[in-house]
Amino acid sequence: MASGEDNKQAVPLQQLKKTKPPGVKSEESEEERKQYLSILRSAGGELLEDGRHGLRIAGWRIETTKRPILNSDARQEWEKNLGSTHLPEMVFGESSLELVHEETGIKIHFNAFDALQGWKQEALPPVEVPAAAKWKFRSKPSQQVILDYDYTFTTPYSGSEVHEPSRKQVEMDVQARKTSECLCWIESEDRINLIALQSKDPILFYDEVVLYEDELADNGVSLLTVKVRVMPTCWFLLLRFWLRVDGVLMRVRDTRIYCAFESDTKGIPVVIRERCRREGTFEALAARGFPSESCAYSDPNLIYERLPVVWQKYEKLSF
Predict the structure, then answer these.
(1) pLDDT tens digits, residue range 68-83?
(2) Which regions span the lipid bilayer (predicted)?
C-alpha cells in the first residue's frame, strides 16, 4: 500500500473534465475550427480521416468509438462467450478507446468485453445488501432472488495491450507476426508528470467513453468509463470503475496511464501506469462524521479522497 503522500499525487478525475477542443465539437463555428486546426498542425497533429473520431500526433493514433448498447441477440452471444447469464443492464459492446503507436505497433485499448472477462475471472463474493433491498432485484413478484454472483460487476481490468507489427515490420521480419503478446507491465519508480498535466497547454483532443453501466435495480450504481486527454506534449487517460451500493459500500478502481511525446534510446515510447483501488463502507464513513445518505455520494469525485486506499501499484510498459 502506498503512503499518504503518494495518494495525494494521484491525478484527480476533475483534471480530465475539460471543454472539448473546437475540432471535435459539432456546434463549432468555422472560425473556431480554423483556429483549432492551426493549433493542431503547429503541434504536428492531424485529425483522423473518414469521419473517425480522433487524431494522429507524435507517432500515435488515438481514436474513440461510441456505439449503442448491445441488443438482445448480441447480449446472448456475449453471455455465451463469457460463460455467464448475467450482464450489466447497459453494455456498450462496440464502444472503445484505442491508442496505437504506429511505428512500433504498440496498441493500448479499452473495451467492455475484456473488462467483463476480468469481472468473471475475479469472481468476488456478492456484496450483502439489506433484505428489503433484495426485493428490488426481482423481475416478477413471485420470483425468488438469490444473489450468488458479483452483481456489482467489479472488475480488475486496467486496459488491454498488444503488439501489432506494421506492414513494414512484417516485411522485414516474418517472425514479427508471432510477437503479438510481447508487451507487459513491470514495476517502476517512474511517476506521472503532474507538472505537464497541470500546464496551460491547449487540449487537442478530449473524450469520454462509457463501457458499461448498471443501476443495481435502483439500489446504487456500477459504472465503467474511460476518459482521454491529448495535449501537444503528452496524452493522459483515466479508466475508472465506480461502485455505490446504497447504504452499504462504495468502491473506486482507477487506472491512470500517461505518455510524454518522447522516446527512450531505442525509439520506444515510455508509457507509465498508476493503478489505485479505494473502498469503504457507509458505516465507516458515518463514524468519521461524513453523511450516511446515499444521495450525498452521486459524484465519485466528491468521495474519492475519503475512501481509504486498499491497493496501489506503479508500472511502466515493457516492450
Answers:
(1) 999 999 999 999 999 9
(2) none
How far apart, in whole angstroms, are the C-alpha atoms of residue 166 and residue 170? Answer: 6
Nearest to 105 by CA among 154, 61, 39: 61
Domain that holds residue 88: 4-318
Q: Which amino acid is at 57?
A: I
Q: Compute the distance between CA of residue 153 and CA of residue 166 in angstroms, rounded to an integer.
A: 36
Report the candidate in 20, 104, 28 with the shortest Cα–Cα distance to residue 59: 104
- Residue 294, C-beta contacts closer than 8 angstroms, at least 6 positions apart: 220, 244, 246, 247, 282
Q: CA neighbours within 13 Å on the CB side: how many for 262?
A: 5
- pLDDT tens track for 109-163: 999 999 999 999 999 999 988 765 665 666 666 666 667 899 999 999 999 999 8
What's the rounded Cα separation, in Å, for the pair 89 and 245?
Answer: 16
Cα–Cα distance measured from residue 93 to residue 242, given in angstroms and rounded to the nearest whole number:
18
Residue type, 317: L
Number of domains making up the chain:
1
Decide: 307 and 278 in contact? Cβ < 8 Å.
yes
